[in-house]
Write a structure and sequence with these properties.
- The protein is of the alpha/beta class and 286 residues long.
- The protein has a single domain (7-285), classed as TIM Barrel.
- Helices cover 35% and strands 20% of the residues.
- The protein has eight helices and 13 strands.
- It has helices at residues 69-84, 88-92, 117-130, 149-159, 174-181, 187-200, 219-234, 264-278, and strands at residues 7-9, 24-29, 34-39, 46-47, 60-61, 100-105, 137-141, 163-168, 203-208, 211-212, 239-245, 259-260, 282-285.
- The strands form three sheets. The protein has a nine-stranded mixed β-sheet with strand order 1-2-3-6-7-8-9-11-13.
- Helix 1 packs parallel to helix 3 and helix 3 runs parallel beside helix 4.
- The longest helix is centred in the N-terminal third of the chain and has 16 residues, at 69-84.
- Residues 1-17 have low confidence and may be disordered.
- Bound molecules: iron/sulfur cluster.
């Protein structure tokens, strides 16, 4: 699940099934000033990672279930028709936010764990094209399935159709990744994943920084993270920038008791350090 900015659902129920659909949900982003159409490939709340800050309730380890591509097509077509040609905006969206910002593959688990990922992207692209949409098609991912051929194919298709990937890098140390992302992964492998994504589709790094038991990340953690970004830049890995998030919404995991948001001053200082050391563009969301 992505770290969102101040996204909230546009309907009264703050659940992904607020419009009664299995895979498709609308959100209003006040910060982006528009509506995002989300695609949730993990209605089973299953992910191969377990991020301490994850906002998915009843998160469990696993992969996306088989997707009914016809239902996905029909739901996306129905919601986009309501947004583009119907009265969805008038009925549900504040006046200042009545534009479509993107279609985002981002749900209650890791979307690329879906064994039909390439077919899913094909369906989304076809429906978007039927409405002549040129908004970005975004994928929010932890990057861990990028080496699979069907995921690579899906990313390549996205790249041909306004695709953009936000790939998660919260820590680059073994201990940090284990603590924040709940997964055993080393830096070399993380780098391979980021490189593999960036080689196929325009890519941003997405990072969440938070305070654990009242303490900000150790300086050694920050130094390693900055060096990782700097190496990407100096090795000409095509990264468009860094999306730096604070703890915007409460975690739904047991680890939530350890977590608090870092203050705005600390986050701004971190954003500036990233800019200075890596020369990457940084967008900060608190
Ligand atoms: S990658 Fe992390 S934040 Fe995203 S769904 Fe999985 S556990 Fe949650």
């Amino acid at each position: 699940m992505p770290m969102s900015d101040d996204m909230q659902l546009s309907t009264k129920n703050h659940d992904r099934d607020a419009v009664g659909m299995l895979y498709v949900y609308p959100v209003v982003s006040r910060r982006a000033g528009g509506v995002s159409v989300g695609i949730n490939l993990n209605p089973n709340n299953a992910c191969n990672w377990h991020c301490a800050y994850c906002q998915v309730p009843d998160l469990k380890r696993g992969v996306a279930p088989e997707i009914d591509l016809i239902v996905l097509h029909d739901e996306l077509h129905c919601l986009l028709a309501d947004i583009v040609d119907g009265d969805f905006m008038l009925q549900h969206v504040p006046e200042a936010c009545r534009k479509l910002c993107d279609v985002a593959i981002s749900g209650n688990g890791e979307p690329t764990s879906c064994s039909q990922f390439d077919a899913v992207v094909r369906v989304i692209v076809d429906v978007m094209q039927s409405f002549h949409l040129s908004v970005p098609l975004r994928l929010i991912t932890n990057g861990s399935y990028v080496h699979k051929q069907h995921v690579h194919a899906g990313l390549a298709l996205m790249a041909e159709h306004h695709g953009e990937v936000w790939v998660k890098v919260d820590s680059v140390t073994d201990a940090g990744i284990q603590r924040i992302n709940g997964v055993s992964l080393n830096q070399a492998r993380l780098r391979q994943q980021v490189e593999a994504v960036a080689a196929v589709c325009p890519t941003w790094i997405q990072t969440c920084m938070l305070s654990w038991q009242g303490k900000p990340p150790e300086e050694s953690e920050i130094t390693a993270y900055l060096a990782f970004l700097q190496a990407l830049k100096s090795d000409a890995v095509d990264i468009h920038g860094v999306l730096l998030y604070g703890l915007a919404r409460p975690s739904m995991q047991d680890e939530s008791v350890y977590l608090t948001a870092l203050d705005a001053e600390w986050m701004a200082m971190m954003a500036e350090r990233i800019r200075r050391q890596s020369s990457l563009d940084v967008k900060l969301s608190l």
